[in-house]
């Protein structure tokens, strides 16, 4: 029988999804866990299929994998059982039985990514850009040159921007995406928001009249949110969901502490550079301890 899982991970500590010799990857950790739990017999088991290969540093809350198991081992194929063999930053969240022909990559009908941006975006400037990006286009200018896809034509169904004060989120929904496409499109939207580029430039990039490489945004701000399939329902494991939420909360608190320390150092150095009397006294007091 064939089973499928929703997989979540924080990609910052891994060299991407795909197995690489001598590197710590999501695929290696997942397959090691399946072997330790007795679901598969070897790390080289080739029957495991993934919906997509996220780059180094990219995160996921809705990656999908599938594989075949013996019926008598189905009791092992539950998120909470497999998660006991996984690092806390990689966790199975949901499970489904699927038909024997199911392929998580080929059978996907929609993919949903969310790109986080470190500042608010100018919605007046970006609204028209979004309209132009929606639909079927050749996204060659927004694709890594090393891509092996036969075609870079993709159909973007939806792009939505939301501002949250000090940062923004850009949501993308499409049938599929080319390599680095979401991060490069997000970079283009950011450039238009900042006034660095205009709509004429975007039109030329989409028509391929302009052949300009565009630097993608950093991978750690990208999240694979979900992948949709026709006729497949996943059963969410609430225990595993709570376990992963606990991990996320711990990491969030850790980075808040780190951020507050860096921000305090920035403020101190900035005040000292401004040469204020108060800051200068503050600096002397600290440096003369």
From TrEMBL:
Q: Which residues form the Pseudouridine synthase I TruA alpha/beta domain?
A: 129-230
* GO biological process: one example: tRNA pseudouridine synthesis
Identify the InterPro entries for this entry. Answer: PsdUridine_synth_cat_dom_sf, PsdUridine_synth_TruA, PsdUridine_synth_TruA_a/b_dom, TruA/RsuA/RluB/E/F_N
**Pfam families associated with the record:** PseudoU_synth_1
Q: Which UniProt keywords apply?
A: Isomerase, tRNA processing
Domain of life of the organism encoding this protein: Archaea
- Name the Gene Ontology molecular function terms of this record: RNA binding; tRNA pseudouridine(38-40) synthase activity
The answer to keyword tRNA processing applying to this record is yes
Q: Which organism is it from?
A: Candidatus Methanolliviera hydrocarbonicum
Query: Which residues are responsible for catalysis?
Result: 55
Q: Which HAMAP family match?
A: TruA
Q: Its Enzyme Commission number? A: 5.4.99.12
Residue numbers binding substrate: 113
Give the reaction(s) catalysed.
Answer: uridine(38/39/40) in tRNA = pseudouridine(38/39/40) in tRNA
Family named by the database record: Belongs to the tRNA pseudouridine synthase TruA family.
User: In UniProt terms, what function does this protein have?
Assistant: Formation of pseudouridine at positions 38, 39 and 40 in the anticodon stem and loop of transfer RNAs.
Protein name as it appears in the record:
tRNA pseudouridine synthase A
């Amino acid at each position: 029988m064939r089973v499928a899982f929703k997989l979540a991970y924080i990609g910052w500590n891994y060299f991407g999804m795909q197995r690489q010799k001598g590197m710590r990857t999501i695929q290696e950790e997942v397959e090691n866990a399946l072997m330790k739990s007795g679901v598969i017999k070897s790390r080289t088991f080739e029957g495991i299929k993934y919906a997509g290969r996220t780059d180094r540093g990219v995160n996921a809350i809705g990656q999908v994998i599938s594989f075949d198991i013996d019926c008598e081992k189905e009791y092992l194929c539950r998120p909470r059982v497999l998660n006991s063999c996984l690092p806390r930053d990689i966790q199975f969240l949901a499970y489904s039985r699927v038909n024997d022909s199911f392929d998580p990559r080929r059978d996907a009908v929609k993919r949903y990514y969310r790109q986080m941006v470190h500042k608010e975006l100018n919605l007046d400037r970006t609204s028209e850009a979004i309209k132009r990006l929606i639909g079927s286009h050749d996204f060659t200018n927004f694709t890594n040159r090393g891509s092996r896809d036969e075609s870079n034509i993709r159909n973007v169904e939806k792009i939505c921007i939301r501002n949250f004060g000090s940062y923004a989120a850009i949501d993308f929904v499409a049938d599929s995406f080319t390599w680095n496409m979401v991060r490069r499109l997000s970079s283009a939207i950011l450039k238009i928001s900042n006034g660095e580029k205009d709509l004429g430039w975007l039109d030329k990039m989409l028509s391929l009249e302009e052949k300009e490489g565009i630097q993608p945004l950093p991978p750690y701000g990208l999240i694979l949110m979900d992948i949709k399939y026709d006729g497949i329902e996943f059963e969410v494991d609430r225990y595993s969901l709570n376990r992963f939420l606990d991990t996320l909360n711990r990491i969030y608190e850790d980075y808040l502490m780190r951020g507050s320390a860096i921000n305090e150092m920035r403020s101190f150095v900035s005040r000292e550079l401004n040469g204020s009397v108060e800051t200068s006294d503050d600096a002397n007091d600290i440096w003369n301890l």
